[in-house]
Specification:
Elements (H helix, E strand, L loop, with lengths): L4 H19 L2 H12 L5 H33 L1 H17 L1 H8 L7 H8 L4 H34 L6 H29 L1
Helix pairs in contact: 1-2, 1-3, 1-8, 2-3, 2-7, 2-8, 3-4, 3-6, 3-7, 5-7
Length: about 190
Amino acid sequence: MPNDLPALVAQYGLFAVLLGCILEGEAVLLLASASAHLGMLDIRAVVAVAATGAFIGDNLFFLLGRHWGVHVTEHVPWLARVVPRVDRMLARWRWGAVVVLRFTYGLRTGGPMLLGAGTMPLWEFVAANALGAAIWAVVIATIGYTAGQAIEGLLGNVAHVEKLVLGLVIAIALAAIIIRALLRRRSTRRQ
């Protein structure tokens, strides 16, 4: 196992991006694309893996909504009232709604589940989700890569502090994933 952090990122970074984008997304992709600017990952690979992870994750959440949505809405009345509104929004915006939903904070996982509980056909969600995942990955990675440029510009040559910066990046990504999981668990306990 490599001793230094850049070697670890090079070896496991894309796998972490894949898992992070299946589960959460933005924070992981921002950090990975900033790391790509530092030369630790290839930005094209980061974008491709992030889009793949986002696509897989949202399809899984859609299928969970399709399978369990009826059971959940029977036990959560306010959610049952939301599904028809989501269906009306879809009737008007179709693919645009799926793409925009990906960029809507707080609905990254819940949105596809609501869509799955609704009337949108699976094939249409999969196609719109593929488009949305590709657009999302390019936009968020561009922001992260640009942030990496800004950080490098502020710090000058970051070679002497890259371990510290990368350690901070990994710590923030892990904290974001853990906090999100804890908030979800807390939210499901209240229901």
